[in-house]
């Protein structure tokens, strides 16, 4: 039996890209899913598709920047399934531009989604995981959380923060909560769609010309979850073979 079978998994940013690919893969392994994102139409379509294929999924519309919404998501998950085994903090925003372009509103948005969104998810699920004396937090960082490049200083700062939070969870786990930090390189998602700076968009398009499919990251997440309970996969960096950065 898979170590994923019967586990209750919350996935944020589940309406497309990595979140959707991971949801489908974990459903095939027997996980019980609570899918969260802002776009209800896509959530409903994905949930219906998983259930029609014999999986088990529910959804709740949630904005990770709203602490009350994240608490409601955790409460609904516990009400539906009775427990919370895994949180996959996948929701993220990448808006690249040189610092001197002063895109302060974009800085704020990335901080709110990429850092505070992860923290609000943690705050919502940690009490349940402590009560259960078990749990698994999987945070989606980035290769930008390991190296800084022109135009990505603020984005990198948020992803370094995610990496720090993942390590903090590990050190404070008391042997109860597993922590996995996953850092994708160029992957086929909607991440580059939100770049407003033309120069940064051009650079991103060049980098993402070698992008790999979202399934590559879904497999990494699946690998981390399906390890025995005494094995904690802490760090995975997944790049396209051709990516230099």
Automatic annotation (TrEMBL):
Domain Ketoreductase, residue spans: 7-172
Cross-referenced InterPro entries: KR_dom, NAD(P)-bd_dom_sf, Sc_DH/Rdtase_CS, SDR_fam
Pathway participation: Organosulfur degradation
Pfam families according to UniProt: adh_short
Keyword Zinc found: no
Keywords: Oxidoreductase
EC number of this enzyme: 1.1.1.313
Enzymatic reactions: 2-hydroxyethane-1-sulfonate + NADP(+) = sulfoacetaldehyde + NADPH + H(+)
Keyword Oxidoreductase tagged: yes
Molecular function, one GO term: oxidoreductase activity, acting on the CH-OH group of donors, NAD or NADP as acceptor
Assembly notes: Homodimer and heterotetramer.
Family: Belongs to the short-chain dehydrogenases/reductases (SDR) family.
Protein's recorded name: sulfoacetaldehyde reductase (NADPH)
Organism: Vreelandella halophila
């Amino acid at each position: 039996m898979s170590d994923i079978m019967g586990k209750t998994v919350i996935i944020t940013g589940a309406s497309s890209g990595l979140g959707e690919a991971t949801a489908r893969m974990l459903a095939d392994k027997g996980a019980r899913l609570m899918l969260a994102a802002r776009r209800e139409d896509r959530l409903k379509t994905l949930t219906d598709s998983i259930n029609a294929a014999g999986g088990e999924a529910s959804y709740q519309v949630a904005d990770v920047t709203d602490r009350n919404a994240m608490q409601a998501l955790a409460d609904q998950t516990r009400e539906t399934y009775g427990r919370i085994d895994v949180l996959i903090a996948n929701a993220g925003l990448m808006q690249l531009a040189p610092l001197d372009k002063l895109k302060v509103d974009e800085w704020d948005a990335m901080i709110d989604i990429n850092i505070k969104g992860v923290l609000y998810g943690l705050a919502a699920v940690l009490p349940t995981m402590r009560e259960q004396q078990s749990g698994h937090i999987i945070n989606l960082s980035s290769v930008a959380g390991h190296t800084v490049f022109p135009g990505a200083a603020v984005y990198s700062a948020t992803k370094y923060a995610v990496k720090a939070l993942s390590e903090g969870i590990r050190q404070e786990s008391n042997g109860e909560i597993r922590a996995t930090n996953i850092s994708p390189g160029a992957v086929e998602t909607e991440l580059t769609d939100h770049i407003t700076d033309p120069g940064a968009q051009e650079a991103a398009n060049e980098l993402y010309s070698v992008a790999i499919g979202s399934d590559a990251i879904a497999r990494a997440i699946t690998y981390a979850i399906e390890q025995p309970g005494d094995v904690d996969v802490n760090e995975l960096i997944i790049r396209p073979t051709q990516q230099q950065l």
